[in-house]
Amino acid sequence: MIVYLLCLVLFCLGLYCILRKRNIIKIIVGVMIAEYAVNLFFILTGYRMRGRSPIFSPDVDITNMVDPLPQALVLTAIVIGLATTALLVAIAMRIYEKYGTFDITKIRELRG
Amino acid sequence: MIDLYVLLIFMIIGAIIAIEVKDLLSSVVAVGAVGLGLVVALLILKAPDVAITQLVVEILCLIILIRATLKKDLPFSTSGRWVLNSVITIGFIAVFLLAAWKCLRELPEFGYPTMKVASTYLKEGFSETGATNLVGSVILDYRAYDTLGEATILFAAVIGVLAIVRRIGRIKRGEIVEEDDE
């Protein structure tokens, strides 16, 4: 249970970074940290004590395998995370070219 | 399980450094350290496929982020709307922790998952799909539509990046054209 709590702390750090920081690169870093925490949490829920990797071998009979389903889902989520990060960085670089700053409060047209 | 705790604490310290350091390049390098710690944690948790994917994705992310932050060492501003921002942040984290506390009590204990769906895969995966790696049999056979959707999202994101980054076609009439190829 302590492992889940440490994972929760990591997610809260990412959430704090997204909400509190004003530099766009820092916000992207926060999104990445939160993503790591969620991926790690899914793998943690599928872990079995003293388990083996979910790979069969021809001669050895392996019974105690970890859950392969969260691993497959996280594999998909990691690749999608790379795509969203690349898109975020592209938008941030375009903003830097147009306004000359990464600070979200100094961007004129975002002001309400 | 002590190595897992050590790795998680290392990741938390790396995340704190990445969040609080003033220099952007140092922040990106610290988040890279967090990602590589995650790779080792995944290996300990017996997920080798996910660890390999995470390693490749981590390095690609680092290259993209370093390209974005290179030579753009900017002063860090913290003035203005300090109280409002802090109150909103604390509120969000409190709501999240409340929801997480309710959910964590429902979870089975760490190390003893229920494995309702996965027991079928473990029993019949090899005879039905012929794949020795069960993760491969899940993403490419049982849940192949997931992988198709993932490829669609990846393709859409690549098109989006190309549309944002390219220079031809963005120049309006009457605007002074200035080309600066980096």
How would the blueprint of this fold be written?
The complex is a heterodimer of chains A (112) and B (182).
Chain A lengths: L1 H19 L3 H22 L22 H32 L13
Chain B lengths: L1 H19 L3 H21 L3 H22 L12 H25 L11 H12 L4 H9 L1 H22 L17
Main pleated-sheet profile of chain A:
none
Distance between the termini of chain B: 48 Å
Number of discrete domains of chain A: 1
Backbone structural class of chain A: mainly alpha
In total, how many beta strands of chain A? 0
User: Count of helices of chain B?
Assistant: 7
Helix % of chain A is 55-70%
* End-to-end Cα distance of chain A: 44 Å
Largest pleated sheet of chain B = none
Percent helix of chain B, as a range, is over 70%
User: How would you state the average pLDDT of chain A, rounded?
Assistant: 85
What does this structure look like?
- The complex is a heterodimer of chains A (112) and B (182).
- Chain A is an all-alpha fold.
- Chain A has a single domain (2-50, 65-110), classed as Helix Hairpins (Orthogonal Bundle).
- Helix content of chain A is 65%, strand content 0%.
- The longest helix of chain A is centred in the C-terminal third of the chain and has 32 residues, at 68-99.
- Chain A starts with a helix and ends in a 13-residue tail after the last helix.
- The mean pLDDT of chain A is 85.
- Chain B has 182 residues and is mainly alpha-helical.
- Classes of the chains: A mainly alpha (112), B mainly alpha (182).
List keywords for this structure.
heterodimer; A: 112 residues; mainly alpha; 3 helices; B: 182 residues; extended; disordered C terminus
Question: Brief overview, please?
Answer:
The complex is a heterodimer of chains A (112) and B (182). With 112 residues, chain A is an all-alpha fold.
